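agent> fetching stored inputs for the NAP docking request
agent> found them:
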Amino acid sequence: MSVFDWVIQLIYVLAASCFVLGLHLMNNPATARRGNQVSTSGMATAVAATLAIIVHGHGITTTGWIVMIAGALVGGGAGMYAARTVQMTAMPQLVSMFNAVGGGAAALVAIHDYMHAGATVSASTSVTTLLDVIIGSVTFSGSIIAAGKLQGVINSAPVTFPGARLINMTLAVVAIGLGAYLIASPSAALLTIVIVAALAFGVSMVMPIGGADMPVVISLLNAFTGTAVAMAGFVIGNWALIIAGALVGASGGILTKLMADAMNRSIRNIIVGGFGTGDSVAAIAGPTGSVRSIDADDAAIQLAYASKVIIVPGYGLAAAQAQHEVAALAELLESRGIDVSYAIHPVAGRMPGHMNVLLAEANVPYPLLKEMDEINPEFARTDVALVIGANDVTNPAARRPGTAISGMPILDVDQAKSIIVIKRSMGHGYAGIDNELYVDPKTSMYFADAKKALTEMTAAVKTLVG
Amino acid sequence: MSVFDWVIQLIYVLAASCFVLGLHLMNNPATARRGNQVSTSGMATAVAATLAIIVHGHGITTTGWIVMIAGALVGGGAGMYAARTVQMTAMPQLVSMFNAVGGGAAALVAIHDYMHAGATVSASTSVTTLLDVIIGSVTFSGSIIAAGKLQGVINSAPVTFPGARLINMTLAVVAIGLGAYLIASPSAALLTIVIVAALAFGVSMVMPIGGADMPVVISLLNAFTGTAVAMAGFVIGNWALIIAGALVGASGGILTKLMADAMNRSIRNIIVGGFGTGDSVAAIAGPTGSVRSIDADDAAIQLAYASKVIIVPGYGLAAAQAQHEVAALAELLESRGIDVSYAIHPVAGRMPGHMNVLLAEANVPYPLLKEMDEINPEFARTDVALVIGANDVTNPAARRPGTAISGMPILDVDQAKSIIVIKRSMGHGYAGIDNELYVDPKTSMYFADAKKALTEMTAAVKTLVG
Amino acid sequence: MQYPALLVDVTIFVLALWVGFEVISKVPATLHTPLMSAANSIHGIVLAGAMLIAVTANNAVGYVIAFIAAAFAAANVVGGYVVTGRMLKMFKRRPAIPSPGDAPAAVNAAANGSSRKGTAT
Amino acid sequence: MQYPALLVDVTIFVLALWVGFEVISKVPATLHTPLMSAANSIHGIVLAGAMLIAVTANNAVGYVIAFIAAAFAAANVVGGYVVTGRMLKMFKRRPAIPSPGDAPAAVNAAANGSSRKGTAT
Ligand SMILES: NC(=O)c1ccc[n+]([C@@H]2O[C@H](COP(=O)([O-])OP(=O)(O)OC[C@H]3O[C@@H](n4cnc5c(N)ncnc54)[C@H](OP(=O)(O)O)[C@@H]3O)[C@@H](O)[C@H]2O)c1
Ligand SMILES: NC(=O)c1ccc[n+]([C@@H]2O[C@H](COP(=O)([O-])OP(=O)(O)OC[C@H]3O[C@@H](n4cnc5c(N)ncnc54)[C@H](OP(=O)(O)O)[C@@H]3O)[C@@H](O)[C@H]2O)c1
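agent> prediction call returned; pasting tokens
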């Protein structure tokens, strides 16, 4: 290795260190932005080092330059556009698309290397090459399906049919078996079959999973992409790819585990599918007991004369895009000296941290967003708990065994002195079960779309208090 | 590299992973013991792999075997004996002695390698070899002095004289300058001078530091040992040494920083010395204001009729070895239904976590030991704060600028309804300044040795309540 | 002295997995979404690999692959960082625009801020 | 393919520093003393290096160095692990020996335990 190569490898290690430091700074909302900047500068360093390699090597053709620059401009432009215009509620889809292209690029690195090296490739490189091709391809097609389901372009219900599992297994066996064979005797033609099988497996893996489970799947695919990138690093002998890929692989894996734990389900159970059937507006069913229904004025009176209010946002808030409306109501109440805070359940909404991002978008200061463990003891001292489009995360059934959400920690909303629930109907949430909170004598139901309900309540409070 | 070497290196990486996992499990008292076991098994694996290398290599002589095994037995036996018999209060000394032997062994690895390789050693290996020799030697002698100061064998006051700094500088220049020269032209004779200069520097670095600052110094020397071991790993091309050494280097460095921060001093300020002059029993001085002195019976009445008591232990508790007595008093109070907890300041005592270890020894359940941030809001609701041999960590002067401890976060003892302080005199603590808490009208002073005072108070409470 | 590449790569991979594991297990739930997208942008490092394809490509297939790989990876990098930055910019201690409700909100925020600090480890 | 040893060693060193940094910054103050002594026992890995001295030693000086190094490192390893174990054994959720004050203490411990869990991240 020449001095040049030495310097380049050290610069790559430095870039990877920037990624670590960046993630470290993400531990705290106050330093998170700086973390993103540090990480970005690491990336810029790595790209600059790569350019240096290319220039230093003299091997690139003019066509090569044009292709590379054109590709980067087209891709970069598309990425920039998508990132700038995406709605906060569509974040999971976008993350999924980035997983897709990342995994795809990693697979292409290996495919090119394999074709280029031809028969001269060593067995040990072959192993990582084929792992990269398979994992990258699965991620590519799987992530596109996941994004499609979330966007509503693909049927978000679990799509399954007899023999589906058999097809799945066959595809996996073909991809892995043929991949193993290719390690011994390389062949570009057979590689195509591996790629096709892996792509098909990605589709058949994600199709049977319900739309509501997609965030977990996306997080898992994020880990896959990281692993594919690390394998690409093995293939081309680049430590920056290995380190960064492993970082993402590990972090994606942990995040997936945390999400599954918070939902009290196993990752296996999610992948096998058939649980989260998307939004269940249709699944009307009522718990036994009488329900008290109120309107905006009733709700406004309760709120205006409370001294402590806790807002409990859930998926319905995101679905109705009512984050600005809730922030406006909260500010109005605060301006009247009422103590207002938000109770954020770890899996409220449909992706980790979903509520925090939404409310942050509506300029809610993050110290007002309380995590479950912090806020639960406060419900007993609360006059009104205002539940907005949250269902499962408030369901006392979780405290009993034998229900779909048994064992999931919940927000102790039922301890508040009175409870107002905003939702459109008695419909179920993600877990598809009745919520006993709604028949609690302390609870009043305000049936409406969250955005409309909040706007009306804010108006009613204003009229009431002048 | 042969397959054998491959397997060995992977086993070393596995062993190093055990160290990481072990440290990770130390994050929580509930898993900490398992962490130590995982780490131990990693060490056993590494030693077994090393034995495999030796046997596989066939190069070792019978004398070599004898020397190695005899050394391991003698050292292992001594370590075992020391670890089994040491008093919990003498823990810092023992840790310091382990630093000394660890640093010494690392230096010997490099010295042997240097002498053995002779003129054939490459420049890049030379750099790490000399770093290892210098850091290891400094750690060796410095740690012995630190242990001696803590044990009282060496004068614990800062030992300094005119020209001391000059000697220090000269030694450093000799060690580093000659070391640099040796990289270019190896010479076993000159290496001896480097070793001697480094050893002398270790002594002259630690001598001017006061005994009370020793815990910070020990933590720093721990980081030094880790670095020396990592350098030894560079010298002999062993990744287990590199990884484990870097782990310890980083963790020791952070711990040192945390300690210094919690004391509100810079590491530089500590090393330059002249602050912590050991125990200051002699430094009698009184804050202005009248002091109320009480006896065991008065204290017992206050405690027996309290409903919430917070115990604030400090260095005096450790000095008096009164951990069992305080636990007995606390249990007695608890058996009468009184709510008792312990407020543990991060730098109470003379080493990080000192109070926790002591109280754990006396069977106090660790959930009763509250960290500063957790307990501070509770003082206002507390009937009696019982301060035992703690001084600086309760001194309200820290809240004002311009004192030796300004800016150090303290326990809000002065917010309790009443305060009882057990100490032998109006003497100063570690920082050598008056404590205004003692002239607070709510405060009563019980002047006695902590062990004696607690025994008497327990007896008095028993008599009082039958 | 030299080490075989695969052995080194595996070792580096294992260590980086540990780093990832340790660094993430501290992130509070509040930041999980930005975290996911930050991790997302980091795997955009595959751009470095994609760029190198263009060097060895020497036929039409190679150039097509190089183009697509560069485009994919660049979209990942640029999009990932921009969207993460956009999200994080929204996390504020206090609202940016003063509003009628601002004063009590700010007081609240400050008080909560310190209590938060208290309960965090 | 082969990599130069020093480059690899430096990279591994840097990554391990990150691991150490991340893994330690989470340890609560309660466990700082056992942590110090655990780190202490880990640097006993120098025993692996000390043992290898005995292989290349071939004169009196070499054997003396080998003996001392092995003894030092073994003391570090054995002593470090034993004393750490001894300390950690003392950390208990509840007192081991039931005593008159045990019942309320246990209740307290349980209550505090859960509140602790609540405030930890
Ligand atoms: N956060 C994550 O990472 C994640 C990932 C995957 C799954 N999950 C799961 O998602 C669930 C989250 O619980 P959650 O309480 O937030 O939500 P939820 O239990 O899914 O309930 C959402 C409720 O919002 C109501 N809603 C829907 N659209 C609305 C609108 N426009 N206006 C007003 N209300 C509307 C629905 O009732 P109506 O139809 O009657 O209006 C529904 O009952 C948990 O079961 C969790 O396990 C979370
Ligand atoms: N924990 C660490 O890691 C660490 C490390 C280095 C330095 N420090 C420093 O150490 C200090 C710790 O504060 P602290 O409040 O725990 O202790 P302190 O401020 O040093 O005060 C200890 C007090 O205990 C009393 N005392 C001594 N022996 C006693 C006995 N046998 N019986 C009863 N009382 C006795 C002394 O007063 P009398 O003489 O009147 O009895 C003294 O005022 C801080 O300044 C901290 O910065 C801590």
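agent> quick read of the result: Residues 96-121 of chain C have pLDDT under 50 and may be disordered.
agent> awaiting further instructions
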